[in-house]
Structure formats: C-alpha cells, structure tokens
C-alpha cells in the first residue's frame, strides 16, 4: 500500500507551535476490509442531499484521479501526539459571473438516535467536523482518547486509560435522500457489533493520488 504520503512533511510541521493549522493532501481515502479482503477500494464524495456529500465506496486497487476522490487532513498539533483533526473535502462550484468557488468542508460522523451506526457526511463548511486522528506510522485514521464503559459499575474506575478506537465500516444506508454503500462509524467499543447487518469493518487510510 502507498500510505507514506505527506508523513515526512507532516512530521516536520508537527514540531511547530500549537494552533498552527497543518493541511496535508490532496490524497485518496483508502478503504480496506478488516475481515473481508474482498473490500478493497476507495471513498468518493457522492451527492447525499442539499449541498452535502456522503462517502461512497468504490472497488479498485489503484487511486483514481478526479476531484471527487481528493481529500485533505486538516489538524493542529495539540501536544498529545494523536493529531486530532478533520478529514476535509473541498466543494467546488461555479459562482456568480462564472468564478470558481471553493468551500473547504469537514467530515462529520452523524449520530442516528435509532441505531449505533453514524453515517459519515460532509456538510458544507468547517463548523461541524468530527475530530479524527491520523496514525502517521500506519496511515490509518482512528478516534483517540475514548472511554470504554463496558465494565463500569457502582465503583468509579481508577486511572483507566482512554483508548484509540477504529470503528469505521461501510454499510448500505440512507445518506440524506439516497441509498448508498458508504462510510459509517459504529458507536461503542472497538469491535462493537453494528445494528445494521450490512455493515462491514474497514480500515480507513490515506494513499497518494494517481498521477493525473
Ligand atoms: C483547514 O481548516 C481551516 C480552519 O478551520 C480552514 O480555514 C481551511 O479552509 C481548511 N482547509 C482545508 C483544505 O480543509
Ligand atoms: C493512540 O495512537 C497513537 C498513534 O497515533 C499512539 O501514539 C498512542 O499511544 C495510542 N494510544 C493508545 C492508548 O493506544
Ligand atoms: C466493579 O468493577 C470492579 C472492576 O472490574 C471490580 O473489582 C468490583 O468488584 C466491581 N464492584 C461491584 C460492586 O460489582
């Protein structure tokens, strides 16, 4: 897998002062099955409803060129070495007078109160991003510092370390008004069973774009 993209540059940037926004990309979002090796492909930004994109799955073993396959990772160094940031996508459209308008927008994991499956959506703008970490060694995304309450009882747990969790899945699901096989996050501890039986666990990672 080609996941080394931007790692050296990002490592250099990370030594800068806090609050500096680092952006790496564009890169392809790689999707590989954790248990089903037949899942081997990429995410692309598919229309999910009013100016909102979903992250649809497409099979393939080489990154495809084109704007709907181009993503960024936008983060600030916060001293934890987990680099919490946002996966971002740049909406482009033709504005007034034919001028090109570009709207950087953050990926959001949208909770569903009737399920433990949260759809990954990209509403326009950078206000609602879900903080996601990138492991620069493996090139995979995860969410860091999550508490695991599966053994909690009346006694408060002592010094229980928070966990890194990677619960990305691809599922058949509604994203806005459309039925897609697309990216989701299963709420819960790592490996929690998704309520939607079509969900399959995946690793979500970065990969260099195909030369255009
Ligand atoms: C990165 O984030 C900053 C601040 O939230 C925003 O101004 C910028 O447009 C973002 N860039 C991308 C490519 O997402
Ligand atoms: C979480 O992942 C980061 C790498 O991105 C690692 O440095 C850290 O030790 C991990 N934390 C735990 C609790 O596994
Ligand atoms: C609560 O959980 C802790 C840690 O698992 C255990 O040692 C303790 O006995 C439990 N207490 C009760 C009241 O079940």
Please outline what is shown here:
The chain has one helix spanning about 5-15; strands spanning about 20-35, 40-50, 50-60, 70-75, 85-95, 100-105, 110, 115-120, 135, 140-145, 165, 170-175, 180-185, 200-205. The chain has about 210 residues and is mainly beta.
Question: Any chance you could write out the topology, listing elements then pairs?
Answer:
Blueprint: H1 7-14, E1 21-33, E2 40-49, E3 52-59, E4 71-76, E5 85-94, E6 100-106, E7 108-110, E8 117-122, E9 133-135, E10 140-146, E11 163-165, E12 168-175, E13 178-186, E14 200-207
Antiparallel strand pairs: 1-2, 1-4, 1-14, 2-3, 3-8, 4-5, 5-6, 7-8, 8-13, 9-10, 10-11, 12-13, 12-14
The protein binds 2-acetamido-2-deoxy-beta-D-glucopyranose (NAG) (3 copies).
Task: Tell me what the structure shows.
There is one protein chain. By secondary structure, the protein is mainly β. The chain has one domain. 4% of the residues lie in helices and 48% in strands. It is built from one helix and 14 strands; from the N terminus they run αββββββββββββββ. The chain has one helix spanning 7-14; strands at 21-33, 40-49, 52-59, 71-76, 85-94, 100-106, 108-110, 117-122, 133-135, 140-146, 163-165, 168-175, 178-186, 200-207. The strands form two sheets. It has a seven-stranded antiparallel β-barrel with strand order 1-2-3-8-13-12-14. The chain has a three-stranded antiparallel beta sheet with strand order 9-10-11, with no helix packed on it. The longest helix has 8 residues, at 7-14. The protein is globular. The chain starts with 6 loop residues before the first helix and ends in a 5-residue tail after the last strand. The model is unreliable at 1-18 (pLDDT under 50). It binds 2-acetamido-2-deoxy-beta-D-glucopyranose (3 copies). One 2-acetamido-2-deoxy-beta-D-glucopyranose (NAG) binds next to β1, β4 and β5.
């Amino acid at each position: 897998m080609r996941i080394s993209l931007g790692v050296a540059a990002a490592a250099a940037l990370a030594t800068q002062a806090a609050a500096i926004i680092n952006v790496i990309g564009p890169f392809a979002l790689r999707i590989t099955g954790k248990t089903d090796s037949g899942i081997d492909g990429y995410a692309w930004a598919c229309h999910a409803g009013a100016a909102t994109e979903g992250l649809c799955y497409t099979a393939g073993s080489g990154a495809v060129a084109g704007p709907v396959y181009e993503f960024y990772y936008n983060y600030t160094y916060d001293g934890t070495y987990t680099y919490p940031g946002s996966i971002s996508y740049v909406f482009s459209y033709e504005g007034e007078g034919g001028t090109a308008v570009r709207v950087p927008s953050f990926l959001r994991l949208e909770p569903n109160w009737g399920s433990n499956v949260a759809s990954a959506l990209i509403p326009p703008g950078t206000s609602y991003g879900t903080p996601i970490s990138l492991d620069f060694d493996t090139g995979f995304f995860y969410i860091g510092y999550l508490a695991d309450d599966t053994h909690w009882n009346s006694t408060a747990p002592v010094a229980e370390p928070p966990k890194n969790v990677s619960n990305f899945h691809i599922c058949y699901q509604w994203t806005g008004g459309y039925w897609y096989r697309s990216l989701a996050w299963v709420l819960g501890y790592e490996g929690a069973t998704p309520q939607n039986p079509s969900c399959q666990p995946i690793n979500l990672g970065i990969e260099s774009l195909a030369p255009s």
